[in-house]
């Protein structure tokens, strides 16, 4: 695995871990982290030993968005992001990098602002029982858009609008996030989060990589389309794996009562 300044990449069996590693800054994203994330997602997606990716944060925060100290002091401000936003060429999350492998976000502690990108873009999200979520953009004079738009595809619109407009003055608890569908599991006690994430990832990793990649494409595409068009696209992804060795291996393993031997790609 590559060596990074702001991230830790680890492999535990068939599970690749992407750990945000600026705990002293609550894992806020500076220029270095932004650039490194673009490489790290692709490294994990290309690793034949990794079937599932788990993202989490080191320390007491998952991720707290852009590093406001850097933005306020280095003379570039938010201009650093202008071209990537205008061109919609972000690269620091799994969805924008078109990662084919399943991605689980394991939210520990504080998740704020741009950290919600990773919640919106993950395939599965779980959270420690002491995790909290809020979006401070409007509280620091900024527009919140992409993160909240992504979440509006996953949870009730009014809850998303409330988070966007209340800003830093209200925090969503892990339990409330679960009730709203932002996360699918709350882990208690919090220190069991990584263990729970590894266990969940290992369950996912038992499945056909080819089938899961096509499934991800079909279901994410459905958020972009109406029902009929989504089903048409889904049918295309379904038949895209016809003839793949996993289609024969799956039923054969079931009949023989053994673990399937999937093709890596």
Automatic annotation (TrEMBL):
Belongs to the enoyl-CoA hydratase/isomerase family. Signal peptide: none annotated. This is Enoyl-CoA hydratase/isomerase family protein. It holds the Pfam family ECH_1. It comes from Phytohabitans kaempferiae. InterPro entries: ClpP/crotonase-like_dom_sf, Enoyl-CoA_hydra/iso, Enoyl-CoA_hydra_C, Enoyl-CoA_Hydratase/Isomerase. It comes from the Bacteria. CDD domains: crotonase-like (cd06558). Gene3D superfamilies: 2-enoyl-CoA Hydratase, Chain A, domain 1, Lyase 2-enoyl-coa Hydratase, Chain A, domain 2.
């Amino acid at each position: 695995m590559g060596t990074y300044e702001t991230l830790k990449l680890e492999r535990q069996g068939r599970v690749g871990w992407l750990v945000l590693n600026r705990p002293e800054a609550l894992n806020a994203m500076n220029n270095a982290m932004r650039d490194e994330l673009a490489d790290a997602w692709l490294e994990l997606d290309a690793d034949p030993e990794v079937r599932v990716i788990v993202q989490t944060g080191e320390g007491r925060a998952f991720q707290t968005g852009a590093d406001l100290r850097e933005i306020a002091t280095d003379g570039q401000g938010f201009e650093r992001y202008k071209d990537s936003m205008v061109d919609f060429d972000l690269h620091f999350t799994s969805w924008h990098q078109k990662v084919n492998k399943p991605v689980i976000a394991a939210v520990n502690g504080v998740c704020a602002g741009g950290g919600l990108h990773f919640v919106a873009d993950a395939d599965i999200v779980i959270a420690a029982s002491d995790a909290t979520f809020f979006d401070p953009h409007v509280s620091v004079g900024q527009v919140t858009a992409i993160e909240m738009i992504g979440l509006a595809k996953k949870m009730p619109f009014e809850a998303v609008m409330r988070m966007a407009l209340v800003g830093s003055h209200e925090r969503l608890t892990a339990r409330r996030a679960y009730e709203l569908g932002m996360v699918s599991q709350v882990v208690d006690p919090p220190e069991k989060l990584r263990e729970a994430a590894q266990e969940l990832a290992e369950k996912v990793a038992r499945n056909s990589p080819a089938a899961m990649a096509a499934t991800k494409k079909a279901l994410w595409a459905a958020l972009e389309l109406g029902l009929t068009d989504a089903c048409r696209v889904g049918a295309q992804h379904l038949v895209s794996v016809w003839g793949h060795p996993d289609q024969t291996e799956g039923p054969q393993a079931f009949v023989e009562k053994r673990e399937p031997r999937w093709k890596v790609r």
